[in-house]
Write a structure and sequence with these properties.
The structure holds 2 protein chains of 2 kinds. Chain A is an all-alpha fold. Chain A has 2 domains: 1-32; 67-294, Orthogonal Bundle (MetI-like fold), CATH 1.10.3720.10. Chain A is built from 13 helices and 2 strands. In chain A, strands 1-2 form a two-stranded antiparallel ribbon. Chain B is α/β, with parallel strands linked by helices. Chain B has helices spanning 7-22, 25-30, 41-57, 70-82, 94-102, 125-128, 152-158, 169-182, 197-206, 222-237, 244-247, 274-279, 318-330, 332-338, 348-354, 360-375, 390-402, 408-425; strands at residues 32-38, 62-68, 89-92, 131-132, 135-136, 139-140, 143-144, 146-151, 188-190, 264-270, 285-288, 304-305, 308-311. The longest helix of chain B is centred in the last third of the chain and has 18 residues, at 408-425. Chain B is globular. Chain B starts with 6 loop residues before the first helix and ends with a helix. The chains are: A mainly alpha, B alpha/beta. The interface between A and B is medium-sized, with 27 and 32 residues.
């Protein structure tokens, strides 16, 4: 009995100590995340221009999206970006991870070099660099000109502007590559040895061993990169100077949200857009989780 | 170890912290003023020099200056005002003055006039342009007009005479054609102004139309816009104004303008921006008035306050802010430092004082503004709430037309529909 009382008292004290240690994070969560989240949910039901107090208009903001052509355009741009950038980036990441796994000389050096673009990633400097490389008189066209090819004005032509951003995304394959590399190193060597003895070639080994064993890692990368792609903002903002241009061809959903909020001061509408984006991300993630049992193999 | 986190120790560090906070007290007692403006590198340089001169006279006053380019400035200002962190001194634009004043974000300047904001000797234009509902919410930094900026050296190389007063759009087309022909591959006679709100407004006024009527209605029809797009579309097809994919790289900043990047011989900017344009270019630049529908016809050009200086209604340093504004507008030293990069002062005495010391660009601006003032029409009514968004709407639709995604007629219709929708939502 006595021991039990003492134990529960200690547990009680430990709980408080735990909360004490959690407090800074908890305060941050409440004040910096949940508070603004609740405020934005409230604002999404209002008309608010930052200067006048918000005015309750119910579901009007959400209703308005149905007939807002730029809303649909922004959705289309963001989804095109996800559909192009995520698979290409994962392919590049997997391909390079396979190469690095071969145990090249200086593999550590290559790994660091290949990861570098991801560190620079969504930075303003890189987006500015991209602008210079893909401009009408940019680096790429100078290189093409050396081969007698006249390049387009990639970044300021609505037909190619989004593609240049896809290339920028693919170039930042570093973090999924590192995850793939870790996943590849987890696959037991004896599986390959056994398969080799049974006469399976490299391609067959890849299809029958590497890919199935890697599916949890692919799944992780897929979810992570899809969310990242839907949240992408800086690249389009910098490259188009915040316009999403030319002619809305790089109008990411996040960029449209930003324009509505900070260029047009439709804070209520922008909040509603943010909640739509969050629902889309949540919904997509849920679908992917539900679908994983059809293709993801966990080592039980 | 326990001692490290003891209550006493904690209290001690709190005390130490608060005494550290108390250090700048003296500066606080003397007041501190935050001033925010939009501009360009040249304006930042001149404004920081003015701040330095003011600090030399008022060593106890803490002044902080903040600048942003035009596009970033408005989100920044709105966010700060909403967060009750508005700068004390706010650089205001005519089109946003009504919106800010109406919502009580600005201080009626009557409260600080004539002391410390003493504006005796200034033209009535000094405060008239800053009036909303009978009260003054902004003091004009100077008068300004819209202008055609010409690359003088490109004109000379092409053997084309610089435009004189009274030129028409037909003259403009002729000059631009010759400039295109004479220039190298990829160099055009003029920037495509189909996305320029300022040129469109003057073009409409030449045709007896306007952006917005007194009562805040749209003052033009889809046909007017279609005709405007068709005019520029014609020039674009002939290859004498910049093609769509070049024009799209102009992000309404001086450093991305077709003129300063050397893509076109003619660009369109405010008259006071000549200083900023020239600072970015080796070739010399000269100003010309807006071409009219016929020779010596109405240009639709007008003078307006280039910028206004306002004080935040929430400022706790109203007196210091007003004194700074007086210094910027009326102190001979400050006026000399700034030149007329912010506009031509609304005071004959200051204009005379500056005349001998003006640099070549500033002298050209002053001359241009005084010429335009002879033919200028009245300043159009301030735009209704939401009307400021023409700023982003026109370039977007003009680009769609230029890239051939929609026709000129569809563009005209889209512009009016979208604008009406924006006014309704505001």
């Amino acid at each position: 009995m006595r021991a039990g009382v003492l134990g529960s008292r200690r547990r009680y004290r430990d709980t408080w100590a735990a909360y004490g240690f959690l407090a800074p994070w908890l305060a941050g969560l409440l004040v910096l995340t949940l508070g603004p989240l609740a405020a934005s949910l409230y604002l999404s039901f209002t008309q608010f221009d930052l200067l006048d107090p918000p005015e309750w208009i119910g579901l009007e903001n959400y209703r308005q999206m149905a007939t807002d052509p730029r809303f649909w355009k922004a959705l289309r741009v963001s989804f095109t970006y996800v559909v192009l950038a995520v698979p290409l980036k994962l392919l590049a990441a997997l391909g390079l991870a396979m190469l690095l796994k071969q145990g090249l000389r200086l593999a550590v050096l290559y790994r660091a070099l290949l990861y570098l673009p991801s560190l620079l990633g969504a930075s303003v400097a890189v987006a500015l660099l991209w602008q210079r490389v893909f401009a009408g008189d940019g680096l790429l066209n100078h290189v093409l000109a050396a081969f007698g090819i006249t390049g387009a004005s990639w970044i300021s032509d609505p037909r190619y502007a989004l593609d240049t951003l896809v290339v920028l995304a693919v170039w930042q394959f570093g973090s999924p590559m590192i995850v793939f590399l870790a996943g590849l190193q987890q696959i037991p060597r004896d599986l390959y040895e056994a398969a080799g003895l049974d006469g399976a070639g490299a391609f067959r080994q890849f299809r029958r061993i590497t890919l199935p064993m890697l599916t949890p890692v692919i799944f992780f990368n897929l979810i992570f990169q899809t969310i990242e792609a839907l949240k992408a903002f800086t690249q389009a903002y910098v490259v188009s100077s915040g316009t999403g241009g030319p002619t809305d061809s790089t109008l990411f959903f996040t960029l449209y949200l930003y324009q509505e909020a900070f260029a047009h001061f439709h804070m209520g509408y922008a909040s509603a857009l943010a909640w739509v984006l969050m629902s889309i991300i949540g919904g997509l993630t849920a679908v992917m989780f539900a679908a994983q049992r059809y293709w993801v193999h966990y080592d039980e | 170890m326990a001692g490290l986190f003891s209550r006493r120790h904690f209290a001690g560090s709190l005390l130490a912290g608060s005494s550290a906070l108390a250090l700048p007290r003296r500066a606080w007692a003397a007041g501190s003023v935050r001033w925010m403006w939009w501009g360009n590198p040249e304006r930042d340089r001149r404004t920081n020099a003015v701040i330095k001169a003011y600090k030399a006279q008022n060593p106890d006053l803490a002044i902080t200056g903040e600048s942003a380019n035009w596009g970033d400035y408005w989100p920044k200002l709105a966010t700060q005002v909403a967060g009750r962190r508005a700068p004390d001194v706010i650089q205001m634009d005519y089109r946003f003055l009504v919106e800010y004043a109406r919502r009580g974000a600005l201080l009626p300047l009557e409260q600080v006039m004539p002391q410390p904001l003493d504006l005796t000797g200034f033209d009535p234009a000094e405060t008239d342009g800053g009036k909303v509902a009978g009260k003054v919410y902004g003091a004009s930094v100077g008068a300004n007009a819209y202008a055609v900026h010409c690359n003088v050296d490109a004109f000379a190389r092409a053997g084309v005479a610089l435009p004189g007063p009274g030129w028409s759009w037909a003259d403009f087309e002729q000059a631009a054609t010759a400039l295109s022909k004479a220039g190298p591959q990829g160099f055009y006679g003029a920037a495509d102004a189909s996305r320029s709100e300022d040129i469109l407004e003057r073009w409409l006024q030449q045709r007896k139309k306007m952006f917005f009527t007194e009562d805040g209605q749209i003052g033009f029809t889809p046909d007017d816009i279609a005709a405007y797009f068709a005019f520029w579309g014609g020039l674009r097809k002939k290859g004498i104004v910049t093609p769509a994919e070049l024009t799209a790289t102009d992000h309404a900043e001086l450093r991305t303008s077709m003129l300063t990047t050397g893509k076109a011989a003619i660009g369109f900017h405010h008259s006071n921006q000549l200083a900023g344009v020239q600072a970015l270019m080796k070739d010399r630049v000269a100003l010309a008035d807006i071409p009219a529908q016929q020779r010596n016809g109405a240009t639709g050009n007008y003078l307006k306050p280039s910028q206004l200086m306002s004080i935040s209604a929430k400022s706790t340093n109203v007196k210091e802010a007003a004194a700074l504004i007086r210094f910027v507008l009326a102190d001979p030293e400050a006026v000399r430092i700034q030149g007329i990069e912010r506009g031509v002062p609304d005071s004959q005495a200051l204009r005379d004082m500056m005349a001998p010391s003006l640099g070549p660009e500033d002298a050209a601006i002053a001359l241009f503004v005084s010429q335009v003032s002879k033919t200028a029409g009245p300043t159009p009514p301030a735009p209704p709430k939401g009307g400021g968004e023409m700023n982003t709407l026109l370039p977007r639709i003009a680009d769609q037309v230029a890239f051939g995604q929609i026709t000129e007629v569809e563009g005209g219709r889209a512009l009016v529909e979208n604008l009406a929708n924006l006014l309704k939502r505001a």
